[in-house]
């Protein structure tokens, strides 16, 4: 006796949303190493949040997501990934402002450690990319 599997319901994994934003910054707008007045820093944070909010308005409510920040650089200057965490934080807050996720706590957002990748100028200009990917709840 053989089983007929053609009538069983097929469970298809839903399509997960993913998008990447590219920002033309060759230098990090914020860094843990920058020595700036707190009002100047707050102004830049507000600009980054507003920029991400405006860009993310087309993203549906994801419920839960993973975010990744990559700084593409064209020189071999030593840089620490930890120093660009303030950029990641401001962009994540912008996603919350755009109501892509409820909050930027681990329950709703998985934040990957930022990465810095060298690429020769002839292949790609220096920039930042910020990828938002839906994660199954």
From TrEMBL:
InterPro entries: RusA-like_sf. GO terms for biological process: DNA recombination; DNA repair. One of its GO terms (molecular function) is magnesium ion binding. It comes from the Bacteria. This is Uncharacterized protein. It comes from Cryobacterium arcticum.
């Amino acid at each position: 006796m053989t089983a007929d599997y053609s009538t069983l319901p097929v469970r298809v994994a839903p399509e997960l949303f993913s998008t990447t934003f590219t920002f033309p910054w060759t230098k990090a707008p914020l860094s843990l190493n920058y020595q700036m007045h707190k009002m100047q820093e707050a102004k830049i944070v507000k600009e980054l949040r507003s920029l991400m909010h405006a860009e993310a308005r087309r993203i549906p409510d994801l419920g839960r997501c993973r975010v990744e920040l990559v700084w593409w650089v064209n020189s071999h200057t030593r840089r620490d990934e930890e120093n660009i965490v303030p950029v990641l934080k401001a962009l994540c807050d912008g996603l919350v402002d755009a109501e892509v996720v409820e909050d930027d706590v681990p329950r709703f957002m998985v934040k990957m450690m930022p990465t810095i990748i060298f690429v020769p100028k002839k292949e790609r200009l220096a920039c930042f990319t910020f990828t938002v990917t839906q994660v199954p709840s």
